[in-house]
Automatic annotation (TrEMBL):
Belongs to the PA-phosphatase related phosphoesterase family. InterPro entries: PAP-like, PAP2/HPO, PAP2/HPO_sf. The keyword Nucleus does not apply. This is Phosphatidic acid phosphatase type 2/haloperoxidase domain-containing protein. It is found in: Membrane. Keywords: Membrane, Transmembrane, Transmembrane helix. The chain crosses the membrane at residues 14-34, 67-87, 99-120, 170-188, 200-222, 228-246. Residues 100-246 form the Phosphatidic acid phosphatase type 2/haloperoxidase domain.
Length: 338
């Protein structure tokens, strides 16, 4: 994992993923273009003319963030973040696993949500504005013949199809799939939650992508393209795919000792610090990180608190290191791991 492979070697190990992603992308696009599957009933007005469900009667507005822009940002900003980290990481396999993991997340989340849109869907907040219902075109059904189907709609057919696929939010799904993956990646490379007290700017940096995803998702409730529950569902789908994809391509999510290490396709990672050449593959250089000695808890233990703590306070050294334990299928950890 320390050397850059030839293109043929890389393609040999990656071709199946490339084909799978292409197939899933084609499937997702086909489902996205398909006509909504369910035939939903909806009420328009009571006998006195009052709108039954005002939450579906909002005006049609221009999207604040178009879906193409949400998808573009969800892909390009994480890739840019991964490349910036290479200023210090300088690992082909880290770039490879980072970008492939990101694509896992984005494509899986997109296909997941388009199937839900197609088979479940729901009425957008501006549905009645797009539908332009004429109740004289069909007889109502249900209690007091209050409900109708899309056959009474007189608006643009493509807009009506789109307004029947509110659940879940595609913008929200894409944003959280991309930006939550970036959050996990930055946390691993900056070691924000690890074995030392990091500077506050690192906390801001790792949560900036989450803020971006939340703003993209929240904008959908302002331009009235989605209900709040559409947005929440999309955020959950995107986040689940991001966590799953990151763990597929890196050795851990929250275990700060290993969560920066890209996994090999064919060789299992033994979860022993001495066994990997990527133990120094991080961006931060604090607390000995950036070299194997820092990760193993050696080299800077005695000076850990020298600038802020007196000799009577606890310091990180070999006598205070973690005891023997097991992780990752029973592999024993060194006693001086911190």
């Amino acid at each position: 994992m320390q050397t850059r492979p030839k293109f043929g070697q890389w393609l040999k190990s990656t071709w199946l993923d490339i084909i799978t992603m292409a197939i899933m992308g084609a499937v997702g696009l086909g489902v996205y273009m398909a006509r909504p599957a369910p035939s939903r009933s909806f009420a328009v007005t009571f006998s006195d003319g009052e709108v039954v469900y005002p939450q579906f009667a909002y005006p049609l507005r221009k999207e604040i963030v178009p879906i193409w822009l949400a998808a573009f940002l969800a892909a390009t900003i994480p890739i840019l973040g991964i490349l910036i980290m290479q200023i210090r990481v300088r690992s082909f396999w880290d770039v490879n696993n980072g970008i492939i993991g990101l694509l896992y997340s984005l494509i899986s989340a997109a296909v997941f949500q388009v199937f839900l849109k197609w088979l479940i869907g729901g009425l957008r907040p501006h549905f009645l504005e797009v539908c332009q219902p004429n109740t004289s075109l069909a007889k109502g059904n249900g209690f007091q013949q209050l409900y109708f189907t899309r056959e009474i709609c007189t608006g643009d057919d493509s807009q009506i199809n789109d307004s029947l696929e509110s659940f879940p939010s595609g913008h929200s799904t894409a944003a959280f799939a991309g930006f939550v993956f970036l959050y996990l990646y930055l946390n691993a490379k900056l070691k924000v939650f690890s074995n030392y007290h990091p500077a506050m700017w690192k906390l801001i940096v790792i949560y900036a992508p989450v803020l971006g995803a939340t703003l993209i998702a929240g904008a959908l409730t302002i331009d009235q393209f989605h209900h709040w529950y559409d947005v929440v569902a999309g955020a959950i789908i995107g986040s689940v795919m991001a966590f799953s994809s990151y763990r597929m391509t890196y050795a851990a999510i929250w275990d700060w000792r290993y969560n920066h290490i890209p996994l090999n396709r064919n060789v299992p990672f033994p979860y022993l610090p001495e066994s990997s050449g990527m133990m120094g593959g991080v961006f931060t250089r604090k607390a000995g990180w950036g070299n194997a000695a820092g990760v193993l808890g050696r080299g800077n233990d005695q000076s850990y608190h020298d600038h802020t703590q007196n000799a009577n306070q606890d310091t990180y050294n070999t006598s205070s290191a973690a005891p023997l334990g097991t992780v990752g299928g029973g592999h024993t950890q060194p006693e001086n791991m911190v």
